[in-house]
Amino acid sequence: MVTRVRVPNKKEREMLGTVTSMLGANRVVVRCVDGVTRMCRIPGKMKKRIWIRENDVVIVIPWEFQDEKADVVWRYTGPQVNWLERKGFL
Hints:
Blueprint: E1 15-24, E2 27-32, E3 37-41, H1 44-47, E4 57-62, E5 69-75, H2 78-87
């Protein structure tokens, strides 16, 4: 079986991160690969379709005017996380 994986787009300022805690009100705390812990917002179109839990690997886009906040744009499944580790993204 082939695993299709979406990788972060550097031109769009996307980066990988791991959810460390849930805050409620569609907010999570994410530890990004650049070492910064950001408070991230889950947009409405993701909130209705995808459940995000602690220790999930996600793609976030930092805000341009406030670097310690970001938006979550993608959540990876287990096989996709394994692929990312094998290819050296994590």
